[in-house]
User: Fold Synaptotagmin-like protein 2 from Prolemur simus.
Amino acid sequence: MSDDRETDTASESSYQLSRHKKSPSSLTNLSSCSGMTSLSSVSGSVMSVYSGDFGNLEVKGNIQFAIEYVESLKELHVFVAQCKDLAAADVKKQRSDPYVKTYLLSDKGKMGKKKTLIVKKTLNPVYNEILRYKIEKQILKTQKLNLSVWHRDTFKRNSFLGEVELDLETWDWDNKQNKQLKWYPLKQKTAPVALEAENRGEMKLALQYVPEPIPGKKLPTTGEVHIWVKECLDLPLLRGSHLNSFVKCTILPDTSRKSRQKTRAVGKTTNPIFNHTMVYDGFRPEDLMEACVELSVWDHYKLTNQFLGGLRIGFGTGKSYGTEVDWMDSTSEEVALWEKMVNSPNTWIEATLPLRMFLIAKISK
Assistant:
């Protein structure tokens, strides 16, 4: 492969760990803090549908709601009226503090968490709220609507009280009856679809390890890892037909903000071409055993970034500098790319890898 990088952009950072090598205390500190993960950074919605207490309370009762597609606004309206005979989270006082949460689900993931207000101290809450989704009808017909009822306690913990799922693909939108309020029995949680199994698209990239960036130097220099993010293919659409994606890179266990690099955002396509090369220096041969390249793809919308999926490229040993870490979890394909790069210095090694879900390591200061 020729090295005529038609790079739109390039960026450089240093891999900071070699500095910490002499003082084990700061090193462990670095490794352990990056071993911690934060749910919040995984844009709540993908994970939070599974967070909370399942199975502790019996599921009983019914929910009354109606759905309608408003053509003039290109909006789905979910009218949540009320629930009756819910399970009691507070058994002694026979009451709950329930609210209703809705999602649109497709094979691409979850979209648009909406919630009603919480109604306190009742098993028969009345909401009369409309939850709105701006979405094209064609896309809506590929989705399922999930309504779930939850009890929120004083410590802000959620307990699952039941759910209803409607398949919008087979829904008869023209039937007047379907716009009327109807009662639906609440059901047990269906087993969550393994997040891994969802198709989250792919990334085409190339890696290169350059052991001696300045040849001919008498003193041993540290090497560089070059990461060429070429393009992504078939990214999931979480917001109807809109997508404005970019790629972030961190070399774990260094989670400092200054080690984080990102591409520019590319809009209006599920197959964005980035052609961005990132260079990290400060690598000694032994660091290649301990480090892991975390590439994450994000959809930028207004003030929020939604995590679409990513790669973790390393040896996947579960450990880094002697500390067990959960981010050293590369798949066999990711390990194969890293091995090839390590074994073929000064050569671009190209691959197209499937994106997957994981918890993003927290940024340290």
In short: Residues 1-8, 18-52, 191-197 have pLDDT under 50 and may be disordered.
